[in-house]
Amino acid sequence: MVDLRERLAYPLPIAVIGHLMGVPEDQRDDFRQLVDNVFDSTLTPEQAKANAARLFETTDQLIAAKRGDPGDDMTSLLIAARDEESDGTGFTDVELRDTMILMINAGYETTVNVIDQAVLAMLTSPDQLHLVRAGQATWEDVVEETLRAEPAIKYLPLRFAVTDIRLPDGQVIAAGDPILAAYGAANRHPDWHGPDADAFDVTRRVKDHLAFGYGVHFCLGAPLARLEVAEALRQLFERFPAMSLAAPADALRPVPTLISNGHQELPVRLRVVE
Ligand code: HEM
Fold first, then answer.
1. 211 CA to middle of ligand 1, Å?
2. Which of 3, 10, 148, 272 fits 209 for a cystine, CB–CB 3.0-4.6 Å?
3. How does pLDDT run across 224-265, given as a tens digit for each residue?
4. How far is the CA of 50 from the centre of ligand 1 (A)?
5. Nearest to 128 by CA among 214, 237, 249, 33
């Protein structure tokens, strides 16, 4: 029995984004703890503040190291872009650090939950897995349906209306009001996906969802995330065709956060036990 979240869902996205951003291997776990804490909405304000300070410090250290010894990675490219634009038209040191944190946060946490939720959906809906194995649906369909039915980011806080927004039912969100974007609710709205919106159905014709956000801030990493998860599922189910869940699905504990939509552990048996 293995915890698939610990053994696959975390290491894969962390290896990919760590490689892209040039995070040295021995620092990737430090970032993981810091990023996990960013998404943990049970921290006290003091703990969250201390975590943010540590995240700033660790990112600043990475920037300083890469500035002294650039590599073939995005951190070095961002630093070069920052340093070349000394006439004020480029971005500031704070923007450089914040961009780094955004990329690392986004790449670390979200994809983990999609792998977790997609594997769980396949192991708890053998009919859906059968459709993929029979060639009637693709792993890409599984990824999209997972993003729709179980979006990796369930709620996104810290949005504020910049103008008054009138909703179709006449309610007004006033300029300045805080908004909690509930992607999970939107993706399962019957007006959008019909009366069976709650059902996990890889053959669903309309697979649209808001899991990657909407508009100018639409997720930059969407193609990478889609590729990573589809490939992980393809390889995993090919290599371990008899894999099964090693705990009742309703006993899986959700991660302690309002934001992310995953489980603390995903125990599976990779092979049939004789
Ligand atoms: C399945 C995995 C992922 C999900 C569900 C996801 C979700 C999202 C969402 C909901 C937003 C919009 C936030 C907003 O409205 O402000 C966003 C933005 C963003 N994501 Fe992702 N993301 C994923 C993977 C990634 C990866 C792997 C990367 C990096 C390689 C990434 C980089 C970004 C960046 C840079 C933005 C900000 C774009 C902007 O503000 O213009 N994401 N993501």
1. 9
2. 148
3. 999 999 999 999 999 999 999 999 999 999 998 999 999 999
4. 24
5. 237
